[in-house]
Design a protein that fits this description.
Strand order of the largest sheet: 1-4-5
Largest sheet: 3 strands, antiparallel
Radius of gyration: 51 Å
Strand content: 15-25%
Structural class: alpha+beta
Distance between the termini: 177 Å
Helix content: 25-40%
Length: 212
């Protein structure tokens, strides 16, 4: 009767030696590298939840910063427009004060021209002065026949006239001056309203019976 030993058929335990040399000492050839173990996979649910929360938080912060930048830009644009508007207003005010002092001189030049007294050297100086003030933006206005506008005209005389259909300027006693939209001096004028009695009268005189 053959009796097998208890260790027969079983692998003996002991130290395991692995040869990790890249060159095979027997053949001299380069051994193939073993495939690297796969990286551990991220949790299917937990990791995705964390990433979604982070992205949502970043998007919220980005939206807030963008809104802050847009608000800051709007405030800066408003400030820049306000500064530019104030700068133009200050310039027109300072220029208007200087040109207002020259209006009596321009009135004298206008009266001399109306009486054919603008001749010689005086004419040259007067035309130069008018050219300079024109380049600075000074505009003269006020003409006969234009509609009366109380915002730019000052009525010194008033009458009725059958020749007008609306309140109109019939004479300019003193011209007006402005710079841009700023009125330095309103035009002083005589105005006329339509004559209500003239509307009922036929052309050629008083009304009468036909055939007489």
């Amino acid at each position: 009767m053959v009796t097998s030993s208890p260790d027969e058929g079983e692998e003996k335990e002991g130290p395991v030696i692995r040869d990790k040399r890249r060159i095979d000492p027997e053949t001299g050839e380069v051994r193939e590298q073993a495939a690297a173990p796969p990286a551990p996979e991220a949790p299917a649910n937990g990791g995705a939840k964390v990433d979604t929360e982070e992205v949502s938080s970043l998007q919220t912060q980005l939206s807030e910063r963008l809104a802050d930048l847009q608000r800051l830009k709007a405030e800066y644009d408003n400030y820049r427009r306000r500064v530019e508007r104030d700068r133009v207003a200050v310039r027109e005010q300072a220029l208007g004060q200087v040109l207002s002092e020259l209006l009596p001189v321009l009135d004298d030049i206008g009266r001399a021209r109306d009486h054919d007294e603008l001749t010689g050297g005086f004419k040259s100086v007067a035309e130069s002065l008018e050219a300079v003030t024109g380049k600075l933006g000074l505009v003269r206005y006020g003409e006969k026949g234009e509609p009366f506008d109380p915002t730019v005209h000052e009525a010194l005389m008033h009458s009725l006239s059958p020749e007008v259909t609306e309140t109109s300027v019939v004479d300019v006693l003193q011209p007006g001056y402005r710079i841009g939209e700023r009125i330095l001096r309103a035009a002083r004028v005589a105005v006329a309203d339509p004559d209500p009695d003239a509307a009922g009268k036929p052309d050629g005189g008083e009304a009468g019976d036909d055939g007489e």
